[in-house]
């Protein structure tokens, strides 16, 4: 079931993106963009990141794209206004894009992710605890449990505050003794409270700046008119 | 879900990313360029969430993707404001016309 | 005599008083020299400041004098029993000193008696062994000594700033500060024409026939005067010979500055140079003396008198035993002087005491005396002093009485214990020649200041002679009395010159007594004092003869000379020359007085414009006249002489028979006293003779002086030319120097210049090559780098198309390319 859903969503996302590239009309581009972004949201759900997916839908599909469409409305000189690119450019860009895609795809496929993951965990463990103990299983180092997927909202909220159910607390509560994680060695993650605050202030500043930038000339135009 | 590996998600995100880049490179419409940027960011987001699911990142990846989404929204707002200002000055949104910084 | 507590208490008090008096003029100098530039040139503030400083210094010195007298427990009025009062007093002191020494130096003394026991007393040539049980810090029993600051220590030698206070020091302080105060006050009036922004110097002619103009230098004059006083007081207060040398040179510098005060006048600047260079000749001897002392004694301090510093000794204590004898060993060239110290530099094998060869001690004494010859203008370095008259008259007064020339005599007196009989004989003959030469030239001089200058030379000769023949007291006594009446006479001459609008030739004066009575009669006091006149056979009991100060001191000198020549008949010249010169002195002084103030006016213009000086100038004259009359009251039994006498080195009092290599007989107090009465009578007679002659020649005018001059034309001319000393030096030193200089110049031109020119040419050639290299290589390299950077920038300019989409393409392409490169070339 999930495989089928993945195929559907993946095709929709890739196809939407391709359509955005290929279509000439801005409004159609916006439409295809909505398709693509929604599909990515579906992929997020598949990955168990329900909050991120919901945010994707709300902010991107519901906010950013609407914003873009407003931009189209405010700037299009005529109905269905298109600005055509030269075919040579399109061909050029296509070739380079294909090359880029081939590069990235080959890179992705050539890497042995499982082994990397084990090695990475191993290194992390060494860095943190020296040679005290070996890593028991690679599985235990993986992210949160798939069975619990679909309910990340609370975890994310606490993570923002610095409390990590997925890492620190979960390990201790389940098999902390096996792992050798003692209370003394255990470190609570720093959390994302400060970045969160910075981002919120940043957003505020950007909005104020955007409002200012968008308003200033218009008023002048009104006055001129 | 077991037969869908990390590579698949990464492949999709790569497609999104490349499409975004090509979009930025070909569209003369400034809003089109912005859409390309959104695609690129989405590709990156997908990467992050995929790694958070399959890798040892845990929730960090998701938190990062949340920040990216927020910053993308902010970026979109600012960029659109800039586009509007540009439009008010040049009566066009053709990025090829914006050559004031030509060397 | 004093307990250590009392010693340190009184010593510290005296030290603070005199140090304050010494440093005040320096403070004045600093303020004046730096403040003068921004204060008004017409302001008299600098003068008031200088007077305040030196006046306060005088008051402090006076307090110090009284403190000292009180501490030394002196009875300065010995009029009751005139019969050898001085000697008795001295012996009493000596006895007390001996007692004190037993008490405080017992440890020291034990070592010494051991040493003497081993070697016996056979080597002493003096034959006085009595005092040997008590070695002492103390021929100088009433002196206070200490250290201000240690400048540095080189091996065993301490270079320190010391103080040394005894009767001579406090007397000199009081005298110097008093006279300097009077001169400062006088100078306020005398230098008042400098209080202007535009001073016209009548003696300097510019090329267009006018006179030279400059700004007034009132403040500078007072600044220099203050510095001069500071230097002189520092010299007197100095506690070691090296420090004396420092201030010695400082005095020289100040005299240079002041003599050359009218620096625009060629004569003044030349005179300043001459004074300085002549002094350097003498200072060379001083330096040699210092080196000998450094090498053989290792100390510079005069004497250690502090009871707390038992064991360390000064120069005097090393040379002299407790009763002031030189302790010698060996004969002929091998003769050595045994130093009275445990620690020393040069020791013989079996001798626990360090020694110094006798001839080196003589050489050291002669060297130090060489410095005194220069500073006190003795033969043969006396020629700078008359030329020094180019300075303003107050300067002349200061230089000639209290400060510069007094320094030389003072040093001879201070350093007396270090002088061997041979050195004393040289001193005596030098003084003898000087006094005669000076007096004879003064007879024919017509410039009023020159007369006084030569009389100063002559009187300094008297002092040296007195010191040389063993009349230690007489010499220093005369130094102080002479300071008073000579400064008085100089200020009087300054008053005359001021009143006559800078006319100095006596041949243009005459009859000025009516115009300036105060000056005339104060000058009379000075003239009588220097002539040594007295009312004979009419003495107030207990006060001795009625006479001014000069009589007493000159009387003492003649008595010393007379005693000396009677003891050493071969040196009888040392009595007759000063005796005759006493008459000459009276003659030329009265000649000057009569020529200036009496007779008919010789120049009506000068006479008409002459006027009495303002009160600020006459008041110092009156003060000084008072002291010229009464400072020596009581003669050698009076307070001043008794004060100085306390400082007298022990060995002087007894005299010495067959002393030194040359077997000189030095008179003691007893012998001098025997000759005193007859010497006084003879000297008085001669002085009266001179006075009467002068009165006949110049007062009554019964002898035509012009005819006399013609009759003795050769002699007159010789004297007018100052015994041809300047010509002699011209031929002996200046001409050869010029010839050598010409050779050196020729050598310079022909050899050195050519060589240097060749070197310079080489350098030019090398640098021109270097320039070519610079231009061809370095510049081109730098330019190439610049051009390359610029062209790269220019080419890169085309990459900046300003097209956003192209940029994106560039990024994508470059990422791809980078990956290809990485995968292609990097090892897996």
Automatic annotation (TrEMBL), chain A:
PANTHER family on file: NADH-UBIQUINONE OXIDOREDUCTASE CHAIN 6
Q: How does it sit in the membrane?
A: Multi-pass membrane protein
**Catalytic activity of the protein:** a quinone + NADH + 5 H(+)(in) = a quinol + NAD(+) + 4 H(+)(out)
What InterPro entries does this protein's entry cite?
MFS_trans_sf, NADH_UbQ/plastoQ_OxRdtase_su6, Nuo/plastoQ_OxRdtase_6_NuoJ
Gene3D superfamilies annotated for this entry? NADH-ubiquinone/plastoquinone oxidoreductase chain 6, subunit NuoJ
Query: Localized where?
Result: Cell membrane
Q: Which family does it belong to?
A: Belongs to the complex I subunit 6 family.
Q: What is its main location?
A: membrane
Q: What are the entry keywords?
A: Cell membrane, Membrane, NAD, Oxidoreductase, Quinone, Transmembrane, Transmembrane helix
User: What protein name is recorded for this chain?
Assistant: NADH-quinone oxidoreductase subunit J
Q: Name one Pfam family in it.
A: Oxidored_q3
Report the superkingdom from the record.
Answer: Bacteria
Q: Which GO terms describe its molecular function?
A: NADH dehydrogenase (ubiquinone) activity; oxidoreductase activity; quinone binding
One GO cellular component this record assigns the protein to is:
plasma membrane
What does this chain do? NDH-1 shuttles electrons from NADH, via FMN and iron-sulfur (Fe-S) centers, to quinones in the respiratory chain. Couples the redox reaction to proton translocation (for every two electrons transferred, four hydrogen ions are translocated across the cytoplasmic membrane), and thus conserves the redox energy in a proton gradient.
Q: Which residue ranges does UniProt annotate as crossing the membrane?
A: 29-48, 57-78, 90-111, 192-214
Q: Where is this region: Disordered?
A: 129-152
Report which gene this protein is encoded by. nuoJ
State which Enzyme Commission number(s) the record gives: 7.1.1.-
UniProtKB/TrEMBL annotation, chain B:
Enzyme class per UniProt: translocase
UniProt-listed GO biological process terms: ATP synthesis coupled electron transport
Leader sequence segment: none
Q: What is its EC number?
A: 7.1.1.-
**Record membrane topology:** Multi-pass membrane protein
Please write the reaction equations for the catalytic activity of this protein.
a quinone + NADH + 5 H(+)(in) = a quinol + NAD(+) + 4 H(+)(out)
Protein name from the UniProt record: NADH-quinone oxidoreductase subunit K
UniProtKB/TrEMBL annotation, chain C:
- Pfam families xrefs: Proton_antipo_M (PF00361), Proton_antipo_N (PF00662)
> Which Gene3D superfamilies does this UniProt record tie to the protein?
1.20.5.2700
Q: Which parts of the sequence belong to the NADH:quinone oxidoreductase/Mrp antiporter transmembrane domain?
A: 238-304, 362-566
PANTHER family the UniProt entry points to: NADH-UBIQUINONE OXIDOREDUCTASE CHAIN 5
Which ranges carry the NADH-Ubiquinone oxidoreductase (complex I) chain 5 N-terminal domain? 154-194
Q: Which gene encodes it?
A: nuoL
Q: What is this protein called?
A: NADH-quinone oxidoreductase subunit L
Please list the GO biological process terms of this entry.
Answer: ATP synthesis coupled electron transport; electron transport coupled proton transport
Q: Which residues cross the membrane?
A: 13-35, 47-69, 163-188, 221-239, 245-263, 284-303, 356-374, 423-444, 451-473, 518-540, 573-594, 615-635, 675-698, 807-826
Q: Where in the cell is it found?
A: Endomembrane system; Membrane
Q: Recorded GO terms, molecular function? A: NADH dehydrogenase (ubiquinone) activity; NADH dehydrogenase activity
Q: Name one GO cellular component term.
A: membrane
- State the taxonomy lineage: Bacteria, Pseudomonadati, Planctomycetota, Planctomycetia, Planctomycetales
| Enzyme class name | oxidoreductase
Map out region (Disordered) in residue numbers: 91-134
Q: Which keywords does this Swiss-Prot/TrEMBL entry list?
A: Membrane, Oxidoreductase, Transmembrane, Transmembrane helix
